[in-house]
Amino acid sequence: MRILVAGATGVLGRATLPHLARHEVVGLTRSREKLESLRDLGAEPVLCDVYDYETLQWVTQQVGPQIIVNFLTDLSSGSAEANNRVRREGGGNLLKAARITAADRFVVESVAFALDGDAAQAVEQLEQATREFAGESVILRFGRFWGPGTTERRRNHQRSTSTRPAPKPRASSRTHPRRHTSLPRLATSPRSTRSRPRSERARGTPPLQAILAERITVVAAAVTAP
Fold first, then answer.
1. Minimal CA–CA distance to 219: which of 67, 102, 39, 33?
2. Is 70 helix (H, G, I), strand (E, B) or coil?
3. What is the fold of 2-224?
4. Gap between the Cα atoms of 77 and 75, Å rounded
5. What is the reported pTM?
6. Is 138 helix (H, G, I), strand (E, B) or coil?
7. Residue 175, beta-bridge partner list
8. SS3 content of the chain, % helix, strand, coil (to 5)
């Protein structure tokens, strides 16, 4: 199958691409510096900003994917507004491109924990638009990602080095207020380092690929299921 992945260089994209090796995969990135890393992960890299709809539409038409995957986030910026925007505008552009190219399946990354305010509205809009897709739509809801290369790892480091008391992390086991039993609900957060035995903590945190290894095959299966 021919698969187009937007957000291919994010945490979830980098972990998923190697599991799609038997398919023709095109990965989008807006950073020239990340083109080679996409190639190393087995995808054909394409430079494209999802906010540039004309270019996105042209790329999508050239690729002609059967499956389009929306793994778009903007967590690295540390801006909630930027992340909400990419869910609304970036995700909206990708969905429009999917409709024009008549893709068979549209897969979206969402969350399995409660959000508030504008973030909750952005997720609701993202999921609602996905459910209205004419083809098959798949909404994958995740818990928080922990480990090297994730925003939670950076937040924990900042908390540990701050002179102010660290706020308690939100529990990753909370369920999303919207329930769709036909869709996979994947909680990907392992036990926090604080709850692990001292001897285990001393060995260090396993690589991100190892953290997601058991669950990411389920993600890949959801993307490519016949």
1. 67
2. strand
3. Rossmann fold (3.40.50)
4. 5
5. 0.73
6. strand
7. none
8. 45, 15, 40
